Each structure stands twice: as C-alpha cells, then as structure tokens.
Amino acid sequence: MSGSNDGHPLEQGGTYDVTALRLNDDGDGVATVNGMTVFIPFLLPGERGRIRVTERQRRFARAVLVERSNASPDRQDAPCPVFGECGGCQVQHLTYEAQLSWKTNRIKRLASQLGLDSDAVVRDIIASPKDFRYRNQVQMPVRYDAKKQEVRMGFYGFASHQMIETDSCHLQSEAMQDTLNRARDFLSQAGAETASLVHHVIVRESQTTGDQLVVFAVTQSGGRLRHALSAFQAPRVTSVCLTVQPKAVGPVWGRKLETLYGPGTLTESIAGMSFAISPRSFLQIQTPVAQAMYETVLAYADLTQDDAVLDAYCGIGTLTMLLAKHAGQAIGVEEVEASVEDARLNQAQLGVDNAEFVAGRVETWLPSWVQEGGHADVVVFDPPRKGIDPAAIAAVLEANPRRVVYASCNPATLQRDLKLLIAGGYRVEAMQPFDMFPQTAHVECCTSLVRGE
Ligand SMILES: C[S@@+](CC[C@H](N)C(=O)[O-])C[C@H]1O[C@@H](n2cnc3c(N)ncnc32)[C@H](O)[C@@H]1O
C-alpha cells in the first residue's frame, strides 16, 4: 500500500516521503504527514526518508524508516552490530556532541514549560567522561536452547521480550563482557539440568577496584544447582551469588539472595569515601558522573554546620554521608532493607556519627515524621523514575525547609513534581543536567529550589 502527502488521512501500512523536524524525548525523528505527527526511529532532524506507517493512533502515528536519502552532519556510524534491534540504546547514530545538546535542550524546554527563563536557569550539561563502556552493572536474559543444547544471551528488543543475542555490548567494560561470555559458555557446558533453571545473569563491577560480582537469577534453587553454579569463575570475579525468582520474565530479583562464594559485596570509592555495596542495593550506573552530581547536590544544598538535612530515597547512603559531613545532622530514608543495612555498615566504617538511616517508604514515613514535629532545613530528593509521591511533596511543603534539592532521572516526572513545589511557594534557582547514560535517551537533572519570601 502506498499513501501520499496530499492532505488525505494517514493510512496504516502506507508509505510516505518525509523530513524529520526534531527528535522526540525517546530519540525518534518527528515529522508531520497530512497534519498528523509521525514518530520515526533512526531518522535525524533534517534527514529525508521514505517511511511506512506501522501504528496509527488518534493524535499521532509511528512508522519505520524504509529508505533514507540524505545524512545529517550529526549522524555517526553506530559501533554496535545490533544497534536498531536491541532495546538498550536509542541514539548511537547521533554524535556524542549532538546527544549532549539534544539533552540540554530537553531540560530547557521543560524549564520554559514551567514558565522559567530557561537560558538563565539551565546550566550546560555535564558530559560523561566516556561515551561508551561506562556502565558498572548489566543484567542479561538467558535462554537455554534444548535442541542445540546451548545457552543464548543478549538483551531484549525494543518494547518486546524477544532476545537480541550479543556478545559485544559497547556500554559495559570489556572485562564485564568477557565475564558474561564466560558465563554463557559455562552454562552451556553445565547442561540442561543447570542452564534451563537460570533466566538472568547479572554482573556488577567496581569502577574503583575492577572487582566483579556475578548473580545468577534462577527459577528454583537446590543443593545440586548451588554446587554447579559455585564452580563459575572468571578473572575479575570475586563473588558469585544466587537469587531465586520463580518467574523467568518480569522482575529479575527474588526475595532470596545467597552468596555462593566470596564476600558478596563490592567496594566503590565515591567522593573520597569507601562504600561496601551488596548485590541488591542501588548504585548510580557510573561513578564519575555520580560524583559530579553529588557535588552539585552538595553545592545546591548550601549547608551550614547547624543544619538538619533529609536525604529522601537514599540508597546505601552515599549522598547522605557526604551531606552529613557539611551539616549538623542527616537522615536518610530508603525502602530497600538491604540498602539500609549497607548504609549503616558503611556509616560505622566511615565513622560518620551524625547520620541516621530509616527503612521505609518516603510517602508514608515523611508525612508522619512531619506530623510528629520532624524538622529539616534542607531536603534532598533522589527518587526512582516514577518521581516523588504527591503525599511526600505535600509533607515537605508542610515541613517548609529553606531549600529543596531534586536529583531526577526522568524529566517527565521532574516537570510534574516541580510544578507542585513551585505552586507550594518554592523558586527554581538552577537546573544542572548530567549525561549519566550516553547513547540512550536518559537524562539526569539536579534542580535547586529555595523557599520564597
Ligand atoms: C535513584 S536511586 C537514588 C539512591 C541514592 N541517592 C544514590 O545516589 O545512590 C532511588 C532509591 O530510592 C529507593 N526507593 C524507590 N522507591 C522508594 C520509596 N517509595 N521510598 C523509599 N525509597 C524508595 C530505591 O530503592 C533506590 O535506592
């Protein structure tokens, strides 16, 4: 079927000639055909192409690129052989410089939509020192091919659970990829009895020591399986662990986590402090950008030694410990018990005696803490992608701290939450974007807010 750009409604399956005008927030080219907005992955602004419509909604359509007739000066050859099929990277075809200005402009657009003077408020993005091989953690699905009696590993495709096999992902270190490839060969050799029970392999690497920790996620556990998996070795691997998650598709981690050998933790040095990290605890995906982000949070918090600071969504307390050094008192709140245990152990080892860690959900703990008269001069938020729960925002407005600092990994929820904080009387002083995840559509941003008069 072939359509035309002649003012008729866009047809599903139809082909059209378009020019991309800009990139959307997912990194897809945006064009219009007969008044309808169309998203086309892998077409850059200024590029012309023939597209085929694959999905037609009421207000927009999606299409695939059939043929491209010119190349943007911002285009580069993607180094990864499965780029375009694998769902991990969205913009490997865009030069790193262009990725950075696209991400900065995205935060500027967000600021303008909030009624702010974006040029005055938004700083230039802080780039990643490495545009490839920057990740410290990877989790790969595992499939056992019973016919061929071999294990296949890779990543999921775009919005699907179809496995795209790869043995050379460019986002992680070569040593991590080497460990994954060894794990695949090890499981193939172990045979069906072991390999058919493993659904994911997770590798974490310390960017300080180079040590690696491997976790096998399995559908069920038993003595024979534990014995078989304990035999896995690779040059940088110091610990092997096991997590039991009966569902092979969906959440990877189970409730149970067992160390098969080694200390079961990694050590990472951040902001001049050494932290032990257990497998289940959150750690920012790369240390150099995390460190730059922590320094920005600290500067935006503008603490004095008399201040009480609250670090909401604190993980293993990396940021809490840094804030505590510059404040009178610090409290970290985190829902994952294992992370809170890590935080307390690290606190004892670092000798930080003015911090306290609470295990709980921010949206339930914070309102009752404020009700009971809890006080903070400065509140720091570093939530997951879903942003801050409205109950937590309402509580912070009631607590009325002098400053709020918001480290976000999702511009959409950042915008939603800033709207509430601004309506509650806070003024945005500065916004600092960071590129923690080169080659992807992700962008982090740290926002400084001060209480209005
Ligand atoms: C983006 S991480 C930030 C962690 C920490 N600030 C850091 O830099 O390592 C978000 C953290 O919030 C935790 N979390 C997610 N939802 C939560 C909730 N509702 N209440 C408390 N903690 C939560 C996650 O387990 C994770 O450790």
From TrEMBL:
<dbReference type="InterPro" id="IPR002792">
    <property type="entry name" value="TRAM_dom"/>
</dbReference>
<feature type="binding site">
    <location>
        <position position="334"/>
    </location>
    <ligand>
        <name>S-adenosyl-L-methionine</name>
    </ligand>
</feature>
<dbReference type="GO" id="GO:0032259">
    <property type="term" value="P:methylation"/>
</dbReference>
<keyword id="KW-0808">Transferase</keyword>
<comment type="similarity">
    <text>Belongs to the class I-like SAM-binding methyltransferase superfamily. RNA M5U methyltransferase family.</text>
</comment>
<dbReference type="InterPro" id="IPR012340">
    <property type="entry name" value="NA-bd_OB-fold"/>
</dbReference>
<feature type="binding site">
    <location>
        <position position="284"/>
    </location>
    <ligand>
        <name>S-adenosyl-L-methionine</name>
    </ligand>
</feature>
<dbReference type="InterPro" id="IPR030391">
    <property type="entry name" value="MeTrfase_TrmA_CS"/>
</dbReference>
<feature type="binding site">
    <location>
        <position position="382"/>
    </location>
    <ligand>
        <name>S-adenosyl-L-methionine</name>
    </ligand>
</feature>
<feature type="active site" description="Nucleophile">
    <location>
        <position position="409"/>
    </location>
</feature>
<dbReference type="InterPro" id="IPR029063">
    <property type="entry name" value="SAM-dependent_MTases_sf"/>
</dbReference>
<dbReference type="GO" id="GO:0008168">
    <property type="term" value="F:methyltransferase activity"/>
</dbReference>
<dbReference type="InterPro" id="IPR010280">
    <property type="entry name" value="U5_MeTrfase_fam"/>
</dbReference>
<dbReference type="Pfam" id="PF05958">
    <property type="entry name" value="tRNA_U5-meth_tr"/>
</dbReference>
<dbReference type="Pfam" id="PF01938">
    <property type="entry name" value="TRAM"/>
</dbReference>
<dbReference type="InterPro" id="IPR030390">
    <property type="entry name" value="MeTrfase_TrmA_AS"/>
</dbReference>
<protein>
    <submittedName>
        <fullName>23S rRNA (Uracil(1939)-C(5))-methyltransferase RlmD</fullName>
        <ecNumber>2.1.1.190</ecNumber>
    </submittedName>
</protein>
<keyword id="KW-0489">Methyltransferase</keyword>
<keyword id="KW-0949">S-adenosyl-L-methionine</keyword>
<feature type="active site">
    <location>
        <position position="409"/>
    </location>
</feature>
<feature type="domain" description="TRAM">
    <location>
        <begin position="9"/>
        <end position="67"/>
    </location>
</feature>
<feature type="binding site">
    <location>
        <position position="313"/>
    </location>
    <ligand>
        <name>S-adenosyl-L-methionine</name>
    </ligand>
</feature>
